[in-house]
């Protein structure tokens, strides 16, 4: 897979902002077939930073009701990437 196919988008929430500030961790939505090593290489090459650790999780889609119609959000996979001390991803600085 190509690096830009592995990393789909950053996940920006209140919790991920706290992780970025306190623990130097950033969170991405990734391809469900990608593993930790592929994610680490992709982040290092795209953002030109050193990665200390990668944790991955499968996020199950929630069931949502709209009136009588029951729908389901999609399943997705996320990666929490811990950067080496002193490393920053400038993309998240303005967010």
Task: Give a verbal description of the structure.
With 95 residues, this protein is of the alpha+beta class. It contains three helices and six strands, in the order αβαβαββββ. The protein has helices at residues 3-6, 14-23, 36-47; strands spanning 7-10, 25-30, 51-59, 63-66, 69-72, 76-83. The chain has a four-stranded antiparallel sheet with strand order 1-2-6-3. A hairpin with a 2-residue loop joins strand 4 and strand 5. The mean pLDDT is 93.
List the defining traits of the structure above.
Alpha-Beta Plaits; 95 residues; 6 strands; 27% helix; 3 helices
**Cα-based radius of gyration, to the nearest Å:** 15 Å
DSSP strand (E) fraction?
35-45%
The CATH architecture assignment turns out to be 2-Layer Sandwich
Q: Kindly state the percentage of residues in helix.
A: 25-40%
Mean pLDDT: 93
Shape label: globular
Terminal CA distance reads 28 Å
In total, the number of domains comes to 1
What low-confidence regions span 5 or more consecutive residues with pLDDT below 50?
none
Described by its quaternary structure, the protein is: single chain
User: CATH class, anyone?
Assistant: Alpha Beta
CATH superfamily: RRM (RNA recognition motif) domain
Tally the helices.
Answer: 3
What class do helices, strands and sheet pairing give? Answer: alpha+beta
Widest beta sheet: strand line-up: 1-2-6-3
Quick one: biggest sheet?
4 strands, antiparallel
Number of strands: 6
CATH topology, by name, is Alpha-Beta Plaits
Order of helices and strands: HEHEHEEEE
